[in-house]
Amino acid sequence: MGLGRFSGGIETVRWLCAKGARVTVTDLAGEEALARSLAEIADLDVRLALGGHEERDFTTVDLVVASPAVPPESPFLKAAARAGVPLMTELSMTMSLLSCRTAFITGTCGKSTTTALLGRILGAGGVPSRVGGNIGRALLTDAEQMQATETAVIEVSSFQLEWLARDGIRPDLAVVTNVTPNHLDRHVTFERYLEAKLAVLPERGPTVLCADDLVCRERFAPRVRSHLEWTSLLEEPELGAFFKGGLALRRTEGEEEVLFATGDLRLVGSFNRMNALQASVAARLLGAPREAIRSALVNFAGLPHRLQAVGERDGVRGVNDSKATTPEAAVRALTALDPPLVLIAGGFERGAELSGFASSIRERVKSLIVLGEGSERLADALVGWTGRILGAGSIEEAVDLGLALSEPGDTLLLSPGHASWDMFSTYEERGERFASRFLGE
Predict the structure, then answer these.
(1) For the stretch 131-161, what's the b/e string if a residue is b when 16 or more beta carbons lie within 10 angstroms of its beta carbon?
(2) Residue 199 belongs to some domain of the structure
């Protein structure tokens, strides 16, 4: 249920078919919207039921594997449950097959970079591991082959955690980057979103939390069942990691060790310093040697679509931050880059709080191009701002307008602060089209 446009649905179909299952793929979207995903399973003998759901597809089968984006209270899933049909998600299937140690990374912002960094550090340190989950690659097809000596490093979303909580599945180690209101179109209230995130906490293993995040301090820390280490850019926790004198230090039971120097970090922005701290602490807890941390950091330039330098055009620098799908993520981008900035923002409307985003735009942006269904509300949040606001009907038009408003030395930044689903199949498509237009391709 819900093939979607990401790895999880595709990998699930392929894995089930390889096991000899007769698979029906049902999705509310039609063939055109799912063209990329359907191409990935075109060689398989599956039945397609697209453009809507039929109850019989849920009540006359042996198993329903739902996309985590589907709310558990879906009437079709309820019908399956009444018929006694088991319900699972790709990640719950993966977890049932894994015999190795698992590390979950979640949070509102920074989880992908932290996940990738943790995987790089473990790899540099000779700790066998594989990275997957919400970062873009499902581990279902790897799960049965992974050895007990390996570590599965998995980025998990609130949607995935909501389902895992239902199945009573928890990791051996957890990292929480930060928690601010998000996905309220699905969770409705911040409390429900928070409850979903709290399911990341291990029963017995260690947890790494951000001490600078109020929600981590007040809501997560009291629920930690075992070993807790903090990371902070603002203070020196008694147990955990912090910066002092140009060094990242980790304090453990009265002892201090150097994790890395700030000069080792190629990523820009204070939030990436926090990501590096959390990945480093998690890596040490998982047995990586200290030397592996610097080795990984000096060679890590970041993930695509996350403050990714696209190039320069007529003296204007282009930066693709399409993965900034929340206002908080966009604020981080704005504070990481030096003005003058021309910003492209807007997209799928999820009802997020925009006051902080608007405040950062007022302080750091000289011109704004708004795009997508969320453009009107974002423009309304900037009433009285002296900067120029223009609307665009496509990402290509937005880039053209942005370049026209930019001068040599400016940065044209795509950091939407919104999801991409109103105009694009994925945030990757949005970022790729931004980069292509900027480079004149």
Answers:
(1) bbbbbbbbbbbbbeebeeebbbbbbbbbbbb
(2) yes
